[in-house]
Amino acid sequence: MPRNNKNIPVNAMTDNFCQSISVDGDSFNKSDFKTAHQYENLTQSHRDEGYTFHIVEKGMVHIEIDFIKYKIIGPAVVYMHPNQVHRILEFGNITVCSLAIKNENLNPDYLKFLEEIAPAKPLKLTKESNLIFSEIFSLCLKFFNQKANRLSFHLLKDSSILWLLF
């Protein structure tokens, strides 16, 4: 039976994205959402426009990916393909680092690799792996925030590939 992806909202990459790449890190708790509408937006089933990678550094999140439920306790990494439907079911005191990238910014070999591994289950990280991912994220975030630097995009694009290679 073919999937009907047209009824599932797609979170588009917005102006916050540096030429189709986004890097963000944040800590939050359920109580940070002041209205039911804000929380509902977070927990609504959706797809993302780009390939997304989330490092759950600490905390807990219950997430549903392609209608399979996962309990993720940091440190862990979650990769989601643009066709994967997902939503947050519950979370608590979470720190997460995220990177999203559109396929036009991916080397064809990496794009092929990402297509082959989808769907991928969330992966628990060792302390050593978490440290490496955190350092790569920090580097990517620095490049992302240097919007006036003409080399920023290229440095970010090449550095973000490190997430894929690890």
Question: What do you see in this structure?
Answer:
- The chain has 4 helices and 8 strands.
- The termini are far apart.
- It is α+β, with helices and mostly antiparallel strands and 166 residues long.
- The mean pLDDT is 81.
- Strand 4 and strand 5 form a beta hairpin.
- 31% of the residues lie in helices and 34% in strands.
- It has a domain of 106 residues: Jelly Rolls (Sandwich), CATH 2.60.120.
- Strands 2, 4, 5, 6, 7 and 8 form a 6-stranded antiparallel β-sheet that branches.
Count of DSSP E strands? 8
Largest sheet: 6 strands, antiparallel
Question: CATH superfamily membership of the domain at 21-126, which one?
Answer: Jelly Rolls
SS class = alpha+beta
How does CATH name the architecture of the domain at 21-126? Sandwich
CATH fold group of the domain at 21-126: Jelly Rolls
Distance between the termini: 35 Å
Q: Total number of helical segments?
A: 4
* String of helices and strands: EEHEEEEEHEHH
Helix proportion of residues, in percent? Answer: 25-40%
User: Roughly what is the average pLDDT, rounded to an integer?
Assistant: 81
The gyration radius over C-alpha positions equals 16 Å
Regarding CATH, which class of the domain at 21-126? Mainly Beta
Shape: globular
Low-confidence stretches: none
